[in-house]
Amino acid sequence: MALADARTGSGEPPKVSLLYNPALRSVVYQVVTFVVIVAAVWYAWHNVIQNLARANMSAGFGFLNSRAGFDIAQTLIAYSSDSTYFRALQVGLINTLVIAAAGIVTATIVGLLVGIGRLSHNWLIARLCTVYVEIFRNIPPLLVIFFWYLGVLALLPSIRSIFQHIQENPNASFFISNRGIYMPAPIFGEGFGFVLGAFLVGIVAAIVFTIWANARQRATGKRPPVLWVNLGLIVLLPLAVHVLMGMPLSLDYPVPGSFNMKGGMVVGPEFLALYLALSLYTASFIAEIVRAGIRGVSKGQSEASYALGLRAGQATRLVVLPQALRIIIPPLTSQYLNLIKNSSLAVAVGYADLVAVGGTILNQSGKSIEIISIWMLIYVSISLITSLFMNWFNAKMALVER
């Protein structure tokens, strides 16, 4: 106390200057950063408006209600050349989401298998997986797309050969040609909504049952037959409802037309080339992530599993992989984002994704700033939603300390 009195003349601690207050400085820095960003955006937008005014052009998104005037080959929703630009962008967005979702699922499965295969004790399997990874990781994704589109799918049998095959095998339902894969198309009749409802109920019930089974296993050490029960809920329950409702789901089979197949549904070569290229390319990176994650788990975990009587496959599936997920998930998110952004390469093979459709609209309307803004907003939104989901999943899989 005496020392404090000698320095300050009182028992109060010395006052710290506001310039050296960490809390105040952090607030000031954030405010200054926000003001600078807003000023930069306003300056750029003001410049754009002035330049458009000098060129006698107007800015805005009212053109989205104009007639598109062009057709799109790959559509999952109703669309024609009389539809609006906004509808065309919806078609492109859905096509982008479809290729991204299908690619992520396939790349994850292939990458997981190849990553585990690289650690296999079988010399041939390990070397084949290594060759796969080294080849695809060192080739640009655009070249992989061209390989599948021009080097594989374009060399498939022609549609004339398919017609000849149908004459020889009239009961065939699936046909593969250089114009795509033709297959039966589902026709949903009255009452199919109940089948779909049963399927959704089965999924929810399977999730609930799995949670209960995991809790029972932790409490008693005994695990109920989760796989068979879930298969019954997800598969047998909808099938039973389908039969009870008089089988409202039927199939429309493809048949030969004048110059092409008619009826059924077709998966075009553009989609197949992009899907296979993005899936296999991204899977090579995921395989290395999986291998590194498994290597990051202590070897003692596997040894303890063997000591408990687990086989190698069971030890990997039940002990090693659940722990490796905590290492795998963060870099896996980056690969998912890369696949989503690489889907914009679809324009190289004519697949009608968001960028390809938006480019056609840009050429017709001249609204370059608006179209580019839409592209940026949609891709940023998809990436952020993917990141949020993966961060949530990573938090669920994180090791909770007791």
Could you provide a short overview of the structure?
The chain is mostly helical and 402 residues long. The chain has helices at residues 2-8, 22-54, 85-118, 123-137, 141-152, 159-168, 192-220, 226-244, 269-295, 299-307, 312-342, 354-365, 368-397; strands at 175-177, 180-183, 185-188, 249-252, 255-256, 261-262, 265-267.
Structural class: mainly alpha
Task: Write out the strand line-up for the largest beta sheet, numbering strands in chain order.
Answer: 1-2-7
Question: N- to C-terminal separation?
Answer: 44 Å
- Beta content comes to 5-15%
What are the low-pLDDT stretches, counting only 5+ consecutive residues below 50? none
Number of strands: 7
Globally, the shape reads globular
What series of H and E elements makes up the topology? Answer: HHHHHHEEEHHEEEEHHHHH
**Rounded average pLDDT:** 84
**Radius of gyration from the CA trace?**
29 Å
- Helix run count: 13
Largest sheet: 3 strands, antiparallel
Helix content: 55-70%
Task: Characterize the structure shown.
The protein has helices spanning 2-8, 22-54, 85-118, 123-137, 141-152, 159-168, 192-220, 226-244, 269-295, 299-307, 312-342, 354-365, 368-397, and strands at 175-177, 180-183, 185-188, 249-252, 255-256, 261-262, 265-267. By secondary structure, it is mainly alpha-helical. The longest helix is centred in the N-terminal third of the chain and has 34 residues, at 85-118.
Main features:
two-stranded antiparallel sheet, mainly alpha, 5% strand, single chain
